[in-house]
Amino acid sequence: MIFTTKAEYGVRLLVELGRQSRQPRPQPVSLKVIAESESLPLAYLERIVALLKKAELVESTRGAHGGYRLARAPEDIRMDEVVLALEGAVAPMTCFVDDSDTGRVLCNHEEDKGHGCATKLLWMRVQGGVVRALQGTTLADLVAFGEHGAAGLDGGTARPEDAPIAVPSS
Amino acid sequence: MIFTTKAEYGVRLLVELGRQSRQPRPQPVSLKVIAESESLPLAYLERIVALLKKAELVESTRGAHGGYRLARAPEDIRMDEVVLALEGAVAPMTCFVDDSDTGRVLCNHEEDKGHGCATKLLWMRVQGGVVRALQGTTLADLVAFGEHGAAGLDGGTARPEDAPIAVPSS
DNA sequence: GGCAACTCCGACCGCGTTGGTAGGATTGAG
DNA sequence: CTCAATCCTACCAACGCGGTCGGAGTTGCC
């Protein structure tokens, strides 16, 4: 499993806020409303939205009739930011560490007697695929998708026809 | 983190076998040799290679001078098969279940009052990216990459220039 | 002022998975 | 026979995930 429920719930929450944000006078939405609307545990949502706030993706107003709203327009919220805030990072393997100077990704066991870590090529490609999907999707896309149904699902998704990639018996 | 060490060790193991398989008279390689060569725990490797054998990706000969060898040529071993055997499946979220009749992926909470689960679009795109990277890479690619160094890393990988996607403080 | 509705914050906890280890049974070459 | 290898099952510590609880701070409204 790639993502946990943090990402799932967090994105659902943002979509809900994104719907509200298009109204003429967008009022802040309380977590209680969202929790009931999406059938999610309120206390858990609180911790999730805290991550989004720390990343400056949402803003909050406290007190009665308070709540949350988007810090930017849905078109300007890319999903790589969101997932980074919620899940911490998208790295395919634990051996992927960041060289904090250059920002380049590299592998722990590089020095394996001459030939570098052969698996690196694979993990780089996988990560590239994930990152591209994340960067190419905005919150506005998801909000629109929620309205119009399944339209746009095939845009760059290329659902594997021959390989089910289904959940096995395990 | 997307993959566990099962995938990491398993792929390393296959790469090692892939190197051997190109010799004129390919002898089976014992796990002990691989474990020492890659600095991996032998007992754990045994369990991992069992998964590969069950998926008919490797063959074994028992007894003295026994060991493992690839069941096919490295060019015919695609990484989606390998990861499926090792990790069980590649699904971005727990809510992705397989409709075992059609093989189509769908989501648990479809009926959210009219507008379908809006996050589905995102997870489909992500999964598509992963699956395409996995299907587009063969064991032969990894073996060749291990020899020639970093050549070929950019082939379709599109390393994100502006987004470090680095491991954060967490 | 006081209450109710919110956000905020830290501690706690059961559970399943991950990453190993231990120990032995079986098989085959020399 | 003996040694080297695969095979197989059980066991275990540590960790992260998903979630709860209780309380403290903030604000609108009567």
Oligomeric grouping of the chains: homodimer
Structural class of chain A: mainly alpha
Measure the end-to-end span of chain A: 13 Å
Secondary structure tally: strands of chain A: 4
SSE topology sketch:
The structure is a homodimer of 170-residue chains.
Chain A: H1 5-20, H2 31-38, H3 42-54, E1 58-61, E2 67-70, H4 79-87, E3 96-98, E4 105-107, H5 120-135, H6 139-148
Antiparallel strand pairs in A: 1-2, 3-4
Helix pairs in contact in A: 1-3, 1-4, 1-6, 4-5
The structure holds a DNA duplex (30 and 30 nucleotides).
Short description:
Chain A has 170 residues and is mostly helical. The first copy, chain A, contains six helices and four strands. In chain A, the strands form two sheets. Chain A has a two-stranded antiparallel ribbon.
List keywords for this structure.
DNA-binding, homodimer, mainly alpha, two-stranded antiparallel sheet, elongated, 4 strands
Description:
By secondary structure, chain A is mainly α. In chain A, 42% of the residues lie in helices and 8% in strands. Chain A is built from six helices and four strands, in the order αααββαββαα. Chain A has helices at residues 5-20, 31-38, 42-54, 79-87, 120-135, 139-148, and strands at residues 58-61, 67-70, 96-98, 105-107. In chain A, the strands form two sheets. Chain A has a two-stranded antiparallel ribbon. Chain A has a two-stranded antiparallel ribbon with strand order 3-4. In chain A, a hairpin with a 5-residue loop joins strand 1 (58-61) and strand 2 (67-70). Residues 99-104 and 154-170 of chain A have low confidence and may be disordered. Chains A and B meet through helix 1, helix 4, strand 3, helix 5 and helix 6 of A and helix 1, helix 4, strand 3, helix 5 and helix 6 of B. The structure holds a DNA duplex (30 and 30 nucleotides).
